[in-house]
Specification:
516 residues; alpha/beta; Ribosomal Protein S5, domain 2; Rossmann fold; 4-stranded mixed beta sheet; 21 helices; 18 strands; 17% strand
């Protein structure tokens, strides 16, 4: 009996595992069996592979073909195993020569074309980490796969051309396929696509809110804005990503890998250098925000916002269990989703921005004379954002209506570029100070560091200590005010926070809470 062996990658979350694909040609009646916990789409590969090989001029053996995916205990899903199984079957029947340690990741069309698949970036990253740098993919995926340092990527259009390069007899091969528009050499956008970034100068007035947004961007702090409809909460949130600095190489690779899992395959060759921005509708389910789905869970909006901004407009309109599900990733920066088919872990270190009206009718701001809501209705409305969730939000700001004087003023506000430059300088100061602790931003500093190596003098924290004693702040809130104070000091180019920074940080945290 002949035996062929190739390699592929199985993704569980963002983690990839090398899968050894064995193909055996038996002596019994014609059949095609796939072993090793395949899902429904992988079981369908049998018909795709047979038709692709037949139409490529290298039909598979008419005897029984058994394909075994090792390790058998690892769940395997998707169509990315098609090419590896086909090459193993051709190798078992001696139609091609040995493929060595090459990893094959592609879907097959019935005509023998290689089709792109999702998640090619994390799959190639896993192959390189495991010591398998030679990767064969569909040409439409080649540019994305080539982003991985150390990967030796080969992109092919058809199974026939691939088999020819691995020693198949060219006499019967169908080598005359014309590449499609997404398969030709140089396909895809090789240049950066200019993004239209909303500018802060579009926001009329709201000096306090603009300052709070700058502080949030500088320290990667979470933010709650409470105010009447039309005050500019959504406009401010949409402009926060423009204030954030570009992602570094490691961060960009993480973000691009997540979006590779979620997006349709494309020929893009660009790492995502700008922080992502996610704004799900308030009818989104827990699976849409956190991640989930049938089989192995897929990433949700929280993971797609990794290293960027997750904006929940009309936050009290979300289901309470959806909002409370964000509490764990706000602390850990990671989502571990358990399902019966397996467990998937996705990074989720995002900036949470919440926007809410003061009441269901939205007219309770100021004196609230036009508000038709009862006190019970207001409490029930705002109580959908639970205390434990709000305790994790560093800045809680009440936004007032825009005055006529501010609304009519033009050209007097700072633009995004000027504020972003101050944010970048503050981030540089943080990185220099926190690098010995393995941290990047003030929002990540744990309490043991704040009360240890970065401990402030007792006179500086006196007002904060009194707030903790009176029960105005929790222990978590105490630490978060300290983080805000360090960010305010960084924006002011000071080495340590002053008592005024502590007071301002405390007011930023308590503004919306006291108003409610």
């Amino acid at each position: 009996m002949a035996l062929g062996r190739t390699y592929c990658v199985a993704l569980v979350g963002l983690n990839g595992y090398i899968v050894e694909v064995e193909a055996d040609i038996g002596q019994t009646l014609p059949a095609f069996v796939i072993l090793g916990l395949p899902d429904a789409s992988l079981n369908e590969a049998k018909e795709r592979i047979r038709s692709a090989a037949q139409n490529s001029g290298i039909p598979l053996s008419r005897r029984k073909i058994t394909a075994n995916l090792i390790p058998a205990s690892l769940p395997k899903r998707g169509s990315g195993f098609d090419l590896a199984i086909a090459m193993a079957a051709l190798l078992a029947s001696n139609d091609i020569r040995s493929t060595g340690r090459a990893v094959f990741i592609s879907e097959l069309g019935l005509d023998g074309r290689l089709r792109p698949v999702r998640g090619i970036l994390p799959a190639v990253m896993a192959a390189v980490r495991s010591g398998y740098p030679d990767v064969v993919v569909a040409r439409a995926n080649a540019a994305e796969a080539g982003l991985v340092p150390g990967a030796r990527v080969q992109g092919y259009t058809t199974l026939a051309r691939l088999a020819f390069d691995f020693g198949a007899d060219p006499q019967d091969l169908a080598l005359d396929f014309e590449p499609g528009p997404d398969e030709a050499d140089g396909a895809g956008d090789t240049g950066a696509v200019p993004l239209q970034v909303p500018d802060m100068c579009d926001v009329a007035g709201q000096a306090d809110a603009r300052r709070a947004l700058e502080v949030a961007a500088a320290g990667a702090h979470h933010l709650l804005m409470t105010g009447p409809p039309g005050a500019g909460k959504t406009m401010l949130a949409e402009r926060l990503p423009g204030l954030l600095p570009d992602l570094g190489d490691t961060e960009a690779m993480e973000v691009t890998a997540i979006h590779s899992l979620c997006s349709l395959p494309s020929a893009s060759v660009q790492l995502l250098r700008r922080p992502p921005y996610e704004n799900p509708h308030h009818t989104a389910t827990s699976a849409a925000i956190i991640g989930g789905g049938s089989g192995l869970p897929r990433p949700g909006a929280a993971s797609r916002a990794h290293r960027g901004v997750l904006f929940l407009d009309e936050a009290p309109e979300y289901e309470r269990r959806v909002l409370d599900a964000l509490r764990q990733p706000l602390e850990s920066g990671e989502l571990v989703i358990h399902r019966s088919a397996g467990t998937a872990a996705y990074p989720a270190r995002f900036q949470l921005v919440l926007a809410a009206n003061p009441c269901p009718c939205g007219k309770a701001s100021g004196k609230g004379l036009d508000c038709s809501c009862t006190p019970t209705m207001r409490r029930r409305y705002l109580a959908r954002m639970s205390g434990p969730l709000l305790d994790r939000v560093d800045i809680q700001l009440e936004i007032e209506r825009v005055s006529l004087a501010d609304f009519g003023q033009t050209g007097g506000e700072e633009d995004t570029a000027a504020i972003a430059e101050r944010v970048r300088a503050a981030r540089d100061r943080q990185l220099e100070r926190l690098l010995p602790f393995g941290l990047e931003t003030n929002s990540q500093v744990p309490g043991r560091v704040l009360r240890g190596a970065l401990r402030l003098a007792p006179p500086t924290t006196r007002i904060l200590d009194h707030a903790l004693e009176r029960g105005v702040l929790t222990a978590r809130g105490y630490d978060r005010v300290l983080r805000l104070a360090w960010t305010l000091a960084d924006l002011s180019r000071r080495d340590t926070p002053h008592a005024d920074d502590i007071g301002q940080a405390l007011s930023l945290r308590q503004a919306a809470t006291s108003a409610a």
